[in-house]
Amino acid sequence: MDWAYQSSFSIEGGNFENAGKASIEIKKILKNLKISDEILRRTAIVVYESELNIISYADQGVINLSVTGDKILISVDDVGPGIEDIELAMQEGYSTATDRIREMGFGAGMGLLNIKNCSDELQIFSEVNKGTHLSIIINRMERES
Amino acid sequence: MNLAFLVDKLELRTACCENRLAREVQGGYVGDLLSDVIANSKQGDVWITRQSHQNIVAVAALREHAGIILALGAEPGADTLNKADREGIPVFTTGLSSFAVAGMIYSLMNTQ
Ligand SMILES: Nc1ncnc2c1ncn2[C@@H]1O[C@H](COP(=O)(O)OP(=O)(O)OP(=O)(O)O)[C@@H](O)[C@H]1O
Ligand SMILES: [Mg+2]
């Protein structure tokens, strides 16, 4: 397989000062790779919501980005509390965000759903008190809408 | 319709990026929940919000908004303005409500 691009970004839990920094960097990289606007939009949303969930809930995490000729692969790993009931967490409006997090405009309970809506494939694995893993594929060929 | 026109018509105060007011405004979005805004706003929108926390800048940068209008007297902190400056996202303030700002922009867009 010939990689067009591959890189990792570490995210520190609780650090809202740098929130979105990795996502902005990833978007700039993809823009340079001439990814189309719509794929760029979907990837930016997926990465942003993943980054913010690490910052909001986990101790630390990594976002891995790989771009091939026809796919964007994003894998997200964190060390943290994990998600007990993934089905519940996926529901719009479900959130365990603290008041402090809500005051900043997070905690709508939409993040995981945004990730799902913007992905062509999504897998979530989580183990309580260990961490969470997301595996996301976005096809570079635009889907019919 | 560009940002300078909105600043003039709505008497907005420009808090960041005075040099970028030629940017075109394609539409608008009102929201205070970042996950809602990132998913439902569009490129070229002017984003109207009461959130003034520094996290708004990343959302506007990722969605390529024309600018952010902080409604109802919300004031951006220095950290918000530093980030906005770095990303080149114009930020405006006004005492008007989000409803009033949206209504005025909507009617300006439809009479242009
Ligand atoms: N990486 C994670 N580690 C632990 N819990 C998580 C993680 N990601 C999500 N969750 C849990 O799933 C819930 C729903 O997440 P989701 O991203 O959909 O919404 P939110 O983060 O609460 O709000 P929003 O993303 O809209 O700002 C969270 O409130 C949290 O309880
Ligand atoms: Mg979230």
What's this, in brief?
Chain A is of the alpha+beta class and 145 residues long. Chain A has helices spanning 21-32, 37-57, 86-90, 99-103, 111-118; strands at residues 5-12, 60-67, 71-79, 121-127, 131-139. In chain B, strand 4 (67-70), helix 4 (78-87) and strand 5 (91-93) form a beta-alpha-beta unit.
What does this structure look like?
Chain A has 145 residues and is α+β, with helices and mostly antiparallel strands. Chain A has a single domain, classed as Histidine kinase-like ATPase, C-terminal domain (Heat Shock Protein 90). Chain A is built from five helices and five strands. Chain A has helices spanning 21-32, 37-57, 86-90, 99-103, 111-118; strands spanning 5-12, 60-67, 71-79, 121-127, 131-139. Chain A has a five-stranded antiparallel sheet, with helices on one face. In chain A, strand 2 (60-67) and strand 3 form a beta hairpin. In chain A, helix 1 packs antiparallel against helix 2 and helix 2 runs antiparallel to helix 5. The two termini of chain A are 29 Å apart. Chain B is α/β, with parallel strands linked by helices. Chain B has a single domain, classed as 3-Layer(aba) Sandwich (Udp-n-acetylmuramoylalanyl-d-glutamate--2,6- Diaminopimelate Ligase, Chain: A, domain 1). Helix content of chain B is 42%, strand content 18%. Chain B contains five helices and five strands; from the N terminus they run H-E-E-H-E-H-E-H-E-H. Chain B has helices spanning 3-10, 34-40, 55-62, 78-87, 98-111; strands spanning 13-16, 27-30, 45-49, 67-70, 91-93. In chain B, strands 1-5-4-3-2 form a five-stranded mixed sheet, sandwiched between helices. In chain B, helix 3 (55-62) runs parallel beside helix 4 (78-87). Chain B is globular and about 35 Å long. The model of chain B has no long low-confidence stretch (mean pLDDT 97). Chain A binds chain B through residues 16-17, 19-21, 23-24, 27, 37, 41, 44-45, 48-49, 52, 103-111, 114, 117, and chain B through 32-36, 38-39, 43, 49, 51, 53-59, 61-63, 79, 87. The structure holds adenosine-5'-triphosphate and magnesium ion. Residues 49, 52-53, 111 of chain A line the site of magnesium ion.
